[in-house]
Amino acid sequence: MFWVFKTEPAECSIADIEAAGSAGVVWEGVRNYQARNFLRDQVKTGDMVLIHHSSCAAVGIAGVATIIAEAFTDPSQFVTDSLYYDPKANADKAPWVAVRVGFVRKFPRILPMADLRAIAGLAEMQLLKKGNRLSIMPTTNAEFDLVLLAAKA
DNA sequence: GCCAACGTTGGC
DNA sequence: GCCAACGTTGGC
């Protein structure tokens, strides 16, 4: 399948994923149930991911990654001084999962949302929908291809 | 910093 | 289990 993952580049940017090399990075800290369900149930090894930089100066799609390890228990939910600590989580009941993400490609420039909105085939893309707040969301193969095409322009 | 949209919480 | 109040997200 094809996905869009949102990330604040100050936390984990496409460059950070690239720097992690073949080990990839642990995609942790997802604390929304709908996003968690995608991560736990549908994100599979080999799936392709558009990496979207949010809450920063240059908002937009920054590159491509791939899933190198499927859902496992998110370790950060147990770390008391972590931003992602969940006091309700314990060994018996650990609601949050993480995946491991590996670098594929960094776009020559960030693709801003305004550019994406101008592409007819992306009218239904979930990332572009008003009020969208999901940090893990599916996208279609066709949308994925259109974004790659736009990245070359 | 504004504000729309959505999620979460908690009283009843 | 309803729903108002509150918190958070995130583009602009």
From TrEMBL:
Record's protein name: EVE domain-containing protein
SUPFAM superfamilies noted in UniProt: PUA domain-like
PANTHER family to which the protein is assigned, alphabetical: THYMOCYTE NUCLEAR PROTEIN 1
Name of one Pfam family that matches: EVE
Domain of life, source organism: Bacteria
CDD domains reported in the protein's UniProt record: EVE
Organism: Rheinheimera tilapiae
Residue ranges annotated for the EVE domain, each copy included: 2-148
